[in-house]
Design brief:
The structure is a homodimer of 397-residue chains. The first copy, chain A, is an alpha/beta fold and 397 residues long. In chain A, helix 6 (140-151) runs parallel beside helix 8 (201-210). Chain A folds into 2 domains: 4-232, Acetylglutamate kinase-like (Carbamate kinase), CATH 3.40.1160.10; 246-390, VC0802-like. The first copy, chain A, is 36% helix and 26% strand. The first copy, chain A, has 12 helices and 17 strands. The relative contact order of chain A is 0.10. The A-B interface holds A 4, 7-8, 38, 41-42, 44-46, 48-49, 52-54, 56-57, 59-60, 63-64, 66-68, 70-72, 74-75, 80-82, 84, 86-87, 131-133 and B 4, 7-8, 38, 41-42, 44-46, 48-49, 52-54, 56-57, 59-60, 63-64, 66-68, 70-72, 74-75, 80-82, 84, 86-87, 131-133.
Chain lengths: 397, 397
């Protein structure tokens, strides 16, 4: 939600849906800049602000928006009712600042819908069992939307974002990128975890778990967006596409410890201190050398590179390792598609495409529906475009 | 509540009270300017904004303050808990924007106090029986404070304002004005209704009804303020003072209809249309003339003068009255004191003092503990000072 103009625009959009005969439950976030304003207020009082009182503070942001949006609808003659998370009521656990939804009472919403009212719910918030105000943490408004859609058994949960759908890859890197009509939850989860910023992973997981069809739409433009669902839509071709999209992540860094004695527990000895430093490890590779030692490589977020490197050097001393090396100028390229499950040879095709462009692969990691490679960061654009063309993603669905 | 600096200052003040061994329940209002900011947002969406959604919006103002104040206390090592009206819970009727408190659950607050926590409650708000958010309207935070003090059987309800107590009269008009150590509820109610802006009438009424001792203090300076209670304090003299204070009201206007036939129901015929126009009438005077007609005079708020005059002219036509006249350059001066009950001659002393200064009295109205006169507005300062001196209010208590 942006300014008042944005609220007015959303009201107009909702009226269009309402006039088309839909019952509407709308989940909104805070107005643009409002959450940051509140966080700054909190930090003026306590730079370490967190816990119960921070949630009391932050939830006011969405509460302002629900009231204004309800007013905007009522002014236009459309009955509307706003609800805070506490009012709905959305019950969460008591993990302040990052609570998880436990249950949703929806009798009141159902009743309002039956009376022809548009229901507007504050995203991102709930109350624990003792009625303390909680927030759901990052991406919380999307999660609220999905949870409500599940509770109400809605036909569809539409998420309005600043993009008009999910693309085969980032159009800023590959102008030929094409908007997907549909994508599966599993593919979307891989895309999201690989760096696509369209939706928060948590909301997609939630939708997947409760099988709520999710549609990503633009807040600003008309269009059908992308439907995220368990199956391909009615416009599916006989065969699912091999590859749905290409994801990439620039924020990668790689660390290697060479010549570690290959004994049980060595992986834990290396990664334990990294985890203790609260650093998330992504890809992990272990090769056995002929001399009974092993080389151990893993990737972390680029921001954690220095800390991880220092930690690894300490570990290397303890383990009498030969050497520690690293590279924070790398990126990860991934191809994602449920079609991989039933088609062999996709990995080798991927490696061939990259090889044809002279791109050296530093690491490889695979899952059932994705293959990721780490390459030098200078190859990012070239690699994405080559894969996009090589797998014919610009063609029709 | 002003800025963050103000919140920090309040936290420090509370810590002083806490260290002195007091259990504290603190009711706070929105930060300075915040309520106006929210009202402006609402008016951008709907210039006529009111009703349910306006309350959802406005209550965020206090919610921000309770969170920040609780953070400020916790940061200083003092356990604190914030509560919205809904959380307390403060149940009101469902008159949005001007709800009245029906009941307060205080188990949770009592429990927090027992655990040594400072409890911080958002003023001005509650929920109706259907859990809709309501606001108490103007002066609502004071009312919340008094209601909580009554529910918790608190020793005292302290109201921090921008003045350091209740004065014998407005010190801006009479520099000799003296802060009162104590004043009775009845006197305070008369003072408030006569224009003294120290406290909202509603909070005083509420405190009186539930017999909650109320202390008006400065937010900025130290001092004992003024205790408002049913009896004079322990430092009372043998005799209560005759007069506690002099109130005045600049916003008065007077209307007169002359030569109305003196028949039953004529008062209603004159004042009915005024009430229908939602204009509040203050003083009312009716004199019988020798010729069987009557002159009827009343006062209204100066803002309502034009409307009331037009209405009265219409009525005059219907009643075949002789004449309609008015004056919107008048003020009301009042002396207030429970001592009047047991002392005769106070009215005549008042009239004598004014007469000595050449001040002509236009209307007189009396109640058990106050005497009000209407005079030309040019006499306001002179009248106040003369009465203050004449009743020896600058002397010691």
């Amino acid at each position: 939600m942006g300014s008042i103009e944005r609220i007015e625009a959303v009201a107009e959009k909702l009226i269009g849906y309402r006039d088309a005969g839909n019952d509407l439950v709308v989940v909104v976030s805070a107005m643009s800049g409002e959450t940051n304003r509140l966080i700054e207020l909190a930090q003026q009082v306590d730079p370490q602000a967190r816990g119960r009182e921070l949630d009391v503070l932050l939830t006011t942001g969405e509460q302002v928006t629900i009231a204004l949006l309800a007013m905007a609808l009522e002014k236009r003659g459309y009955p509307a009712r706003s609800y805070t998370g506490a009012q709905v009521r959305i019950t969460t656990d008591n993990a302040f600042n990052k609570a998880r939804i436990k249950s949703i009472e929806h009798e009141r919403i159902t009743d309002d819908l039956a009376r022809g009212r548009v229901v507007i719910v504050a995203g991102f918030q709930g109350v624990d069992e003792d009625n303390n105000i909680t927030t759901l943490g990052r991406g919380g408004s999307d999660t609220t939307g999905v949870a409500l859609a599940a509770a109400l058994k809605a036909d569809e949960c539409q998420i309005f974002t600043d993009v008009d759908g999910v693309y085969t890859t980032d159009p800023r890197v590959e102008p030929q990128a094409r908007r997907l009509d549909t994508i599966t939850f599993e593919e979307m989860l891989e895309m999201a975890s690989l760096g696509s910023k369209v939706l928060q992973i948590r909301a997609v997981e939630f939708a997947h778990k409760y099988n709520v069809p999710l549609r990503v739409l633009s807040s600003f433009e008309d269009g059908d967006g992308t439907l995220i669902t368990t199956e391909y839509g009615t416009d599916k071709t006989m065969e699912q596409p091999l590859i749905s999209g290409i994801a990439f992540n620039r924020d990668e860094a790689q660390l290697t410890i060479n010549g570690v004695s290959d004994t049980p527990g060595v992986a834990f000895q290396i990664l334990g201190p990294i985890a203790d430093a609260n650093i998330e490890v992504d890809m992990i590779l272990q090769n056995v050398s002929a001399d009974g030692t092993t080389d151990f490589t893993f990737t972390v977020h680029r921001n954690d590179y220095e800390t991880a490197f220092a930690s690894l050097q300490e570990t290397a001393g303890e383990l009498k390792a030969r050497e520690v090396s690293g590279n924070n100028k790398i990126v990860k390229l991934s191809i994602v598609g449920v079609g991989m499950r039933s088609h062999a040879g996709i990995a080798s095709r991927m490696f061939e495409i990259l090889s044809n462009e002279g791109i050296n692969i530093l690491m490889i990691s695979t899952s059932e529906i994705k293959i990721s490679v780490v390459v030098d960061e200078k190859y990012l654009e070239l690699g994405v475009r080559a894969l996009h063309e090589g797998f014919d993603l610009a063609g029709a669905n």
